[in-house]
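Trying the structure run again after the queue cleared.
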Amino acid sequence: MQANNLTGGQELLCINTEKVYDWVLNEATFDLSLTDLELPVNPVTGDQLECDDIDLNSVTCEVAPTDVDPIEILDREDQEFEIDGALVTLQLVNIRKNFEVTIFANLAADLGGANVEIGTVEFTRCEQVILCAPDGTDIDVTYTDLDCFVCTATCDVGTTTDIDELDVTVTVRLCQSIQSTFDVTLEIVADFCQPRDMLPIPPCPAPTIPPQCPVVFPVNGNDNGNNGGNGA
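Done. Tokens:
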């Protein structure tokens, strides 16, 4: 039977949502060694850049998850733990995370100092985490912070036939939220949501006129007696 009143008062509801089985926050820091990054061509002149053309003190990096398969759950294994005197079965979850880091550098001052992209390198990091994550649950990994900085940068001068190459060590820091979830259907007692009140439409503005210049116009008709008339 259809409810007569769906607004106001609490109703027994059946909703689809996600149950969070477990939730941890994890921080990790790791170093990368990026070698043999060939210098690009000058974006303005098209000439091949050399080591002397870039400012090594200006080398920076950007890190981001890959567009394809940024997070992969490899497997999960049951393990027993004793927590507060009780024996519980949790899961050892193996996670593979795929990133890409892009290196930038400024050109030398005599070349204009523009910032140029040196190259992008993909890398992978794996980790294990203990969760209540039985088979059937989803593992959701969300980065709350993902950043990097360049620790060292050196440039290798090539021969007459080789291109000069940049070697960079990068430190990556990430903060992540890891949850195990499962889609569930719940029966709850709750209020139905109500639409908000409409905001009133502002009235039409009153007509306005531009500011006037009474100092210069109009004249007040006082011409100091010089009205062109003849005296008596």
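Strands lie at 10-38, 54-65, 71-83, 86-107, 115-131, 138-156, 165-191. Worth checking whether this holds up in the mutant runs.
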